[in-house]
Specification:
The chain has 181 residues and is mainly alpha-helical. The chain is built from ten helices and two strands, in the order E-E-H-H-H-H-H-H-H-H-H-H. It has a two-stranded antiparallel sheet.
Length: 181
């Protein structure tokens, strides 16, 4: 039923840029789209998320003010923010050689020894970029998901289930969830 909604094009604002991907399949979201201009990042995110929620409301015949959170969970559809989290974490796991874990930086057996080392950065453009964000998102994963990184198939399935189950409405909600976990 939902595969019929795959590849579609959406025009964002007055720009002649098109997002050619489906709004429900997480692996097609391009990371470059998010960070090509930081000034309009949040505007684009909101517009895409609104389009995604409108689509869910049309499918479920919901009212415009009804929450879509349960529909995302019931249909096992990842929100736009969950798709972004998924794509960055998968990129991080597939390119582990680009990142160094804390155990390579120091030899102390700490609680966060297997987390990725976050380099010291002063520029907002760098800390909000995909490379740094990917490390932060990976470090905030629950330990039971991080332990599956050796088995790619199980890792992807478990991560997808986790993100579908919690249907995050923002990146901040993802970080808050982890803090409460």
């Amino acid at each position: 039923m939902f595969r019929l909604l795959c590849p579609t094009e959406y025009k964002i604002g007055s720009h002649a840029r098109y997002i050619k991907n489906d709004i429900f399949c997480p692996h097609t979201l391009l990371i470059k789209l998010w960070y090509n201009s930081l000034g309009q990042l949040r505007i684009r995110q909101k517009k895409i998320f609104i389009i995604q929620k409108k689509s869910i409301r049309i499918i479920t015949n919901s009212k415009p003010r009804d929450s879509c959170r349960l529909h995302f969970k019931n249909f096992k559809i990842m929100t736009m923010y969950s798709q972004y989290i998924y794509s960055l974490i998968i990129h991080t796991v597939n390119n582990k050689h680009l990142y160094s874990p804390n155990c390579e930086i120091h030899k102390y057996g700490t609680r966060y020894n297997n987390n990725l080392h976050l380099p010291i950065a002063n520029l907002t453009k760098y800390t909000e970029g995909p490379y740094f964000s990917a490390m932060k998102l990976y470090n905030h994963l629950p330990d039971y998901i991080k332990s599956l990184t050796c088995d790619q198939k199980r890792f992807k399935n478990t991560l997808k289930k986790f993100l579908c189950q919690h249907s995050f409405y923002s990146i901040q909600k993802y970080y808050e969830f982890k803090d409460n976990f």
